[in-house]
Design brief:
Layout lengths: L1 E5 L5 H18 L5 E4 L4 H7 L5 H7 L4 E4 L17 H8 L4 E7 L15 E7 L16 E5 L2 E4 L5 H16 L4 E6 L7 H13 L6 E6 H10 L6 E4 L1 H15 L8 E3 L4 E4 L17 H17 L3 H18 L15 H13 L2
Parallel strand pairs: 1-2, 1-3, 3-12, 5-10, 8-9, 8-10
Antiparallel strand pairs: 4-5, 4-11, 6-7, 11-12
Length: 357
């Protein structure tokens, strides 16, 4: 099976190299025959082609079994009309990667940012193609505008189609876990938009009587997440809420650098670390590649599940287990965890752990 690799910006090339090394070790160990092809995105693409993401790259990505996307320095890109295209948004819309799946879990051997005795093991299912994001919720044009220099407006789009399908993915996932879904909303203020989302979630819930449905106002949900993170299993949310809450959950569980993430449609999947490009760390071999490694592990599991190849799913799970095995050794921790191990060395430790399984 073929995987397209786009290292992109900042620490992207370093953490992607570490993740690919681990994936290659898994490919050898489980006889997967994975092939990795590289292309440019972000600043390397802007320099070569005048845009951070070419339409040709998106079209090529459609022909691959999986995609690995490195971190992007969106804040430093030029304006879209000058080639600074939002890469994540381009993939989410171009390949309809509507489900941003973001797990967060605590580990007994990693210090957390939770109160003593608290644990966390949840997955956030974030709708990723509409909502409050003005760069992806219109067929043409931009969903923000300024009628005058002193007035700015933003349009939020919520559809029944997108709400129902992310809800269904959340309930399907919950059936494989602890059978509880929590829907986040603010329907007491956004009567129509969050009201429609909540209506769709409740309709889908009727198809899954074995799964308990809970719903929380987004502001109350943040308090519950801090106070009793154990109450959450699968969280389903619109784009904006899911983006914010997933960062909160990951940081509480230990670090944003410890959580994997994929963007998936019904036919395509892209691995992308939860965190940003950290340009000040680029080239210093100090980045923690855990998030990228776990994201690639999730991608490989997705490929196995959607292509009927259990060996791929097993390889992805082995990659996750290898990460935990290495993280359980403080001598292997990277700088963000208080250690001195470099990005490349950490990747090698995980690759060696996979090979030894």
């Amino acid at each position: 099976m073929r995987v397209l690799v786009l290292p992109a910006d900042g620490i992207g090339p370093e953490i992607v190299d570490a993740a690919v090394e681990v994936a290659k070790a898994a490919s050898r160990r489980f006889d997967l025959g994975l092939v990795f092809d590289y292309d440019d995105a972000g600043f390397p693409s802007l320099k070569k082609y005048g845009t951070t993401l070419r339409d040709e790259t998106l079209e090529k990505a459609r022909t691959y079994d999986g995609i690995i996307l490195g971190t992007q320095s969106h804040a430093d890109y030029p304006k879209p009309e000058l080639g600074g295209r939002n890469i994540s948004a381009g993939f989410r819309i171009g390949l309809d990667l509507y489900a941003n799946v973001r797990p967060a879990r605590s580990r007994p051997f990693i210090p957390t940012n939770m109160r003593e005795g608290r644990t966390m093991d949840l997955v956030i299912m974030r709708e990723a193609t509409e909502g409050f994001y003005p760069d992806r919720n219109m067929t043409k044009g931009w969903a923000e505008l300024m009628p005058s220099p002193d007035m700015a407006l933003s349009v939020r789009k919520i559809t029944r189609h997108c709400s129902e399908r992310i809800a269904r993915r959340a309930f399907e996932l919950a059936m494989t876990r602890r059978r509880k879904v929590t829907a986040l909303h603010k329907a007491n203020s956004f009567h129509m938009t969050d009201g429609l989302f909540l209506e769709c979630v409740r309709a889908v819930a009727r198809e899954f009587p074995e799964v308990e449905l809970d719903d929380l106002l987004i502001d109350a949900a943040t308090a519950h997440l801090v106070r009793t993170p154990e109450r959450f299993d699968v969280i389903v949310a619109t784009n904006f809420y899911g983006d914010i809450v997933s960062d909160l959950a990951s940081e509480m569980s230990g670090s944003l650098g410890l959580a994997g993430s994929i963007m998936a449609s019904d036919t395509h999947c892209c691995a992308q670390a939860q965190h940003g490009s950290a340009p000040t760390l680029a080239g210093l071999d100090k980045a923690n590649p855990t998030s990228m490694i776990l994201s690639v592990a999730m991608l490989i599991q997705w490929m196995g599940e959607h292509h009927g190849k259990p060996e791929l799913a097993n390889a992805g799970k082995a990659m996750e287990a290898a990460v935990d095995k290495v993280l359980a050794q403080p001598a292997c921790w990277t700088a963000d965890l208080g250690g001195a191990t470099g990005c490349k060395a950490f990747g090698k430790h995980v690759a060696d752990a996979v090979s030894a399984m």
